[in-house]
Amino acid sequence: MLICSSAVANAYSALEAGATHIDTSVLGIGERNGIAPLGAFLARMIVAAPEYVKRKYDLHRLKDIENIVAEAVHITGFCAFTHKAGIHSKAILNSPSTYEIINPEDFGMSRYVHFAHRLTGWNSIKSRVEQLGLHMTDAQVKLLTTKIKAMADVRPLAIDDADSIIRAFHLDLQEKDTAETWVN
């Protein structure tokens, strides 16, 4: 990655100095002698001149090109704009620009806060609870977060796994509330 960072910086400096062409690679495949990855180079360019870059380049096509190359060389997963650590995710949920200098939608992508992970924070779980249309107090969400993190320490959780844990936890809360209502 250090080479890629240097390659992007060098390519951008060359552009600023008047270069009319820049050699790039897709996903860094075949990179030799500091050839900049196209996606990283375009990301650097959009920071400096967003309107120009959006007008000149069809950024949504970049994802298609990268997917074609990734499939051809059997690379799976693309995690740009994916956030999972607790404090990091909280910041993204509150203000995406805290960690994202560029907008994922400009590149045909979307932001994803990964909540089915051992590093998840309670704000990510709270966000998912709200997405599922469920209602819990912060204390309940914190308890649920502890449960999800413990499960994720045992084995990787899929989104459906985490959603099942969330729904089961919510159902248990409702049953306890109903039982307490009957007792009182």
UniProtKB/TrEMBL annotation:
GO terms for molecular function: homocitrate synthase activity. Residues 1-63 form the Pyruvate carboxyltransferase domain. It comes from the Eukaryota. The keyword Protein biosynthesis does not apply. SUPFAM superfamilies: Aldolase (SSF51569). One of its GO terms (cellular component) is mitochondrion. Gene3D superfamilies: 1.10.238.260, Aldolase class I. GO terms for biological process: lysine biosynthetic process via aminoadipic acid. Keywords: Transferase. It holds the Pfam family HMGL-like. This is Pyruvate carboxyltransferase domain-containing protein. It comes from Trichoderma semiorbis.
